[in-house]
Specification:
The N and C termini lie far apart (62 Å). Helix 4 packs antiparallel against helix 6 and helix 7 runs antiparallel to helix 8. About 6% of the residues have low confidence. By secondary structure, the protein is mostly helical. The chain has one domain.
């Protein structure tokens, strides 16, 4: 009987330990400088990266923040799959399957033609761009590197955003601030 009670105590202790450990284990790595990869700590040094209220941060706008957490979930479940599958899935969920992620601002008429077919025009394009840019910086933050194709897509996203920079000119100086931030993000992206 003593042996049975001892075994029962040991098993219940181990079980309690596993339950406590599982509850204290975070599902997501919070976007804070100290939690980033070594490369992210070197490259993503500006405070805006870690400000959840900064709408021009890759993780501060709603779409960018959602992309980070959705990518964390996807990565956990699809660790051996190409990240293009994640991005295609997000574009389908957003209502733009097959959007050409390589299209940039070098052909303004073609891009404007595509944007004109979108339900919410530039707002939808901006959301697509935010998904791509957030994914690139999510990879840098979590993995310490940005896949070559993701980097190309993000560079194209910045190029598309530059075409619509005047959208952000509602307040004096806002457009210039946005352009300065985009230049910094693009520079940091290229270091990743």
């Amino acid at each position: 009987m003593r042996k049975f009670i001892s075994i029962l105590i040991i098993v219940s202790t181990l079980l309690s330990y596993q339950i406590c450990r599982a509850q204290s284990s975070p599902k997501y790595i919070e976007v804070e400088w100290q939690n980033g990869s070594e490369a992210a700590k070197r490259i993503m040094i500006s405070k805006f990266y870690y400000d959840p209220l900064d709408s021009w941060s890759p993780f501060g706008n709603d779409v960018g923040s959602d992309t980070y957490y959705l990518y964390c979930d996807w990565k956990r479940e699809h660790s051996n799959q190409n990240v293009k599958g994640f991005l295609e899935e997000e574009l389908i969920n957003f209502g733009y399957p097959g959007f050409d992620l390589y299209i940039d601002g070098n052909d303004p008429e073609k891009l404007k033609g595509i944007v004109d077919t979108m339900v919410n025009k530039y707002i939808d394009l901006n959301a697509i761009n935010n998904i791509v840019i957030s994914l690139a910086f999510s990879q840098l933050f979590l993995d310490g590197r940005i896949e070559r194709e993701i980097k190309k897509w993000a560079e194209a996203a910045f190029s598309r955003e530059l075409m619509y920079l005047d959208f952000w000119d509602s307040e004096k100086g806002e457009m210039e601030k946005r352009q300065k931030r985009m230049n910094q993000l693009l520079s940091d992206l290229r270091k990743g």
